[in-house]
Amino acid sequence: MPAGCPLGPTGRCLYPRGKVMGGSTVTNAMMYVRGHPADYDEWERLGNAGWGYRHVLPYFRKSENVQIPELRSSPYHGTEGPLPISYSPFASRLSDLFLEAAREKGIPQVDYNGQSQMGVSRIQTTTWRGERWSTNRAFLFPTKRRRNLLVRKRALVTRVLLDAAARRAVGVRYERDGASHVATAKREVVLCAGAINTPQLLLLSGVGPSHHLRELGIRVRKDLPVGQNLVDHSFFVGLPIVFNQSVAPSAREVSNDPKNYIDYITNRQGPLSNIGSLEMIYFFQAGQPVSDSAPNMEMLFLQFPPTVNFANSNVNIYQNLTGKHTSLPVLVPLRPASKGNVTLASTDIHDQPKIFPNYFGEEEDVKNAVEGLKKMLELFQTQAFQKVGTKLFDEKLPSCESYEFATDEYWACALKRFSLTIYHPCCTCRMGRKKDPSSVVDPDLRVKGINNLRVVDASVFPTMVSGHLEAPTLMVAEKSADMILNSASKGIRKPK
């Protein structure tokens, strides 16, 4: 059984898309988390020349305009890019308790986007003065009057047009306002539809596993492992804790107090200036990490638990927390070994593709996550948290009642049934060296065997990173821009 997830009326997991100007940066949690330098050095070791950390750091810096005073002189951060990076203006008492507990345990406070990721920190966000800063606002607004930029809204690309004889992309077919149109390309077609829709579009265009395409009667243009190797981050939400006093405002307290609205509207301050209910982040190792230096676990601290119904319980697991002072620490296994896939449901672009994330499909992911949960729980035994009467909410989760509470077996059951997607799908068109049979694009992001066709989104990641996906996806976009310019004109300078 796959991990639990929020349900719609069909009983399927929810995998929303950012179908808006700015994509998912308009709907995401605004967390700016690049991952560890070792992640990108691994990309290079896998045969992707030019993708080591020393190569990609300039592109992280290029898009960034860090507004955190103590980081503005850091060699790891940029100050001239269009995207502001800042801390949220609001921090509750819970943040202070978290930092105090970390000091008690000897956990360092770090710039997790700098030299060392392991430790605790306030969350770096894509916000400025309490406002979301999407890629639309940062990158498109300033350039919307450029003569060489045309944006077609309400358009859905249905196929990549391929010249079979020349094995090259010549344009795309798209629908708009009920009519079919063709856009031709003088130089290249660049797909940026994301880790789910890019493979869907390639498959419909005849680029993908030949056996799958033939099953649907699609002419095979190029046999490539499109849609395979899907990796996603899940996060476990079955670990609420209870305090004997208030340490952070509840959702009801925030929404019912008019002062919070006045404070935000006039000053962009107060709890409404926060990114949802997220404040602190903790990176650590547990179980058997894939790297000696990089974390394989992330802990986030929600100020108050969300209301979530799960696939296999049909009840709100937080219903008995009403009226209590609560918070929700969540675990995010950063480097899962489990891989899923994306396949077509039909030859109709309007039919949603089949997404099989395969969370905890590998037993090592379960074992590592159980160790991660136990390490998280150690924080709440510190004097810092005990002075507010912190204790674990020990009501057994539905479907796991047969196990003794807080044993490894219980946590393994709970992880599989009460983990959600954190919406970080990647790697479905992974890059790799020419003779790598598991890759779809080369290190220049060109689709193998098809000329004039590139992919520029999270689907090209060779492996998952120890971070969130907005920052590395922006880096890929910045780097690909130089690649595209250099393919048309030599001598383009790289960022310093």
UniProtKB/TrEMBL annotation:
It comes from Gryllus longicercus. The active site is at residues 424, 468. Residues 194-208 form the Glucose-methanol-choline oxidoreductase N-terminal domain. Its cofactor is FAD. This is Glucose-methanol-choline oxidoreductase N-terminal domain-containing protein. Gene3D superfamilies: FAD/NAD(P)-binding domain (3.50.50.60), Glucose Oxidase, domain 3 (3.30.560.10). The keyword NAD does not apply. FAD binds at residues 20, 157. PROSITE patterns: GMC_OXRED_2. InterPro entries: FAD/NAD-bd_sf, GMC_OxRdtase, GMC_OxRdtase_N, GMC_OxRtase_C. SUPFAM superfamilies: FAD-linked reductases, C-terminal domain, FAD/NAD(P)-binding domain. Keywords: FAD, Flavoprotein. Belongs to the GMC oxidoreductase family. Pfam families: GMC_oxred_C, GMC_oxred_N. GO terms for molecular function: flavin adenine dinucleotide binding; oxidoreductase activity, acting on CH-OH group of donors.
